[in-house]
Write a structure and sequence with these properties.
This protein is of the alpha/beta class. It contains nine helices and five strands; from the N terminus they run H-E-H-E-H-E-E-H-H-H-H-H-H-E. The longest helix has about 30 residues. The radius of gyration is 38 Å and the shape is extended. The protein starts with a helix and ends with a strand. The relative contact order is 0.14.
Length: about 325
């Protein structure tokens, strides 16, 4: 009976495993279309004139910038997602120059009502994920929702081509932005350090307050007046740390306070003598503050492009780009 139970359990296990794996093996990946040109329309939604106009536009873009933009209009990507299918198609077609990785692939899946812009490594700084997302949502999808697939494809190609042609300007903007971010980070680090250093002044203020308390006790012979003199001095560190934090004039203010207290203690201690009366005098000082400002500058980098005849089979992709639906 025990052996029979083990055999039944084994049969049930293998039956469940087979039921689980059969649907997976049945859903084989689609065969990718061949690269027959810069525009591959497997659903024939583009007229001959529209396709020729797109081909001409993409050829001119290649000549001006050496970037290779390819369009694929298909039915569905099932069982894959639009992202996996587009990356697999880009890895097969390899648009873009091998030494620049400046290829772009626009995939439109009509039955799925989805699309994706796949960007090669070399253009990820220009065609960022955010810019691609904006092109999809603001430029292409409105046409698609109106049922104008050719118009949406043409508008998307125009927007992508415009960004690619503005590559030098965009790269200069990116470099300037990076430089500005670095300056802000450096500025933050500077003030953060000054903030940390400002707490150091709490210690000498406290020590000076204790010294003043001790000296006043020796002069007056009473504890209460010494506390009234010394405690505010000890609290000055907290006061200035709270209200003048991160200010360049913190250090001069502290120095003036130290000098004022030194004169105060010195004048009262020097005029005290046994058997005679003494008088005390107060002196005050003033402090001035100054501030300085800094200016920042940024540098830009240059971008060069060349032209060559179109040939798929060189660019590399890493998943950069964006997807959308309508």
């Amino acid at each position: 009976m025990a052996n029979q139970g083990i055999r039944i359990t084994g049969i049930i296990f293998w039956a469940c495993l087979a039921a689980y794996t059969v649907p997976l093996t049945a859903q084989e990946l689609q065969t990718l279309p061949d690269l027959s040109g810069r525009v591959v329309d497997t659903r024939s939604v583009l007229s001959a004139e529209q396709k020729a106009a797109l081909e001409q536009k993409l050829a001119e873009l290649d000549q001006k910038t050496s970037a290779e933009l390819v369009v694929a209009v298909i039915g569905t990507t099932n069982p894959e997602s639009i992202e996996d299918y587009s990356l697999r198609l880009a890895e097969k077609w390899k648009p873009g120059k091998a030494d620049k990785d400046n290829g772009v692939l626009l995939v439109v899946a009509l039955q799925d009502r989805k699309l994706r812009i796949e960007v090669g490594y070399g253009l990820e700084g220009i065609l960022t994920d955010a810019r691609c997302k904006d092109i999809i949502s603001d430029v292409i999808v409105p046409h698609f929702k109106d049922g104008n697939i050719p118009g949406g494809v043409a508008a998307g190609v125009d927007s992508l081509a415009d960004l690619i042609e503005r590559g030098p300007e965009i790269q200069r903007e990116n470099e300037a932005l990076k430089q500005k971010e670095a300056e802000v980070e450096e500025h933050y680090r500077y003030w953060s350090l000054l903030n940390d250093l400002s707490y150091i002044w709490l210690v000498p203020c406290g020590i000076l307050g204790l010294i003043l308390m001790y000296l006043k006790k020796g002069i007056t012979g009473s504890v209460l007046p010494s506390v009234l003199y010394g405690l505010p001095v000890a609290l000055l560190g907290f006061f200035f740390d709270d209200y003048f934090l991160d200010a360049l004039y913190v250090i001069p203010i502290y120095l003036v306070i130290f000098w004022f207290l030194f004169l105060l203690v010195h004048s009262e201690g020097g005029s005290y003598s046994s058997g005679s009366s003494s008088s005390s005098s107060w002196s005050s000082g003033s402090s001035s503050s100054s501030s300085s400002s800094s200016s920042s500058s940024y540098s830009s980098s240059s971008y060069s492009s060349g032209s060559s005849s179109y040939s798929g089979g060189g660019g590399s992709f890493g998943g950069g780009g964006a997807s959308g639906s309508w």
